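Form P-L/3: holo structure prediction, ligand manganese (II) ion.
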Amino acid sequence: MLTVFLSLVLSITNHPVMDKNENVMKFELVKLAYATDALEPVISKQTIEFHHGKHLQTYVNNLNNLVPGTKFENADLETIVRESEGGIFNNAGQILNHNLYFTQFSPEGGGEPSGKLAEAINTTWGSFDNFRKEFEAAGLALFGSGWVWLAKDKDGKLSITKEANAGNPLTKGLSPLLGFDVWEHAYYLDYQNRRADHLKELWKIVDWKVVEKR
Ligand code: MN
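OUTPUT (holo model):
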């Protein structure tokens, strides 16, 4: 009985097509390190459930459907974002963006950055308050859907970048450190049209330890 079972398992797991398609190139929904209601009242449980469970899941499903048969079959997400365009870029970009987004928040977040990051912010913007104001202003000035990012170049110089739609600073040769999502799906259930209020509130849940590591 056991032998029959094992040979059956082996015959399935050795199937070459299954292996390639199921194990190598499957993109997965990033896990949340907090409960869906843990970021309230800044981001409601309902928004997290739709944003993470529906919107992001859709991007993951789309990319898993689009990539097979293309040159990106064995590529990682960052490579795809750097080198693709069209539907593959849009979905891969949105997965990368949301992976960074959902992992940079914590119910214990807030406050100010420390160490090297704090120094670099002070060097570039004079103070954390000034940086925050400029970051919010960039997010407000972005017309339509997109992202505002804190990014660094290869020499460690910081900048704020505005990216339309699925954009990520990676495509400009920069590394993303912190990203606020200004697509309406990120805030409409909680803040309706008040994007400015939403951006102001988000600082309360930023996990600066995560951002510093990036
Ligand atoms: Mn989003």
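COMMENT: The domain at 115-213 is CATH 3.55.40.20 (minor pseudopilin epsh fold).
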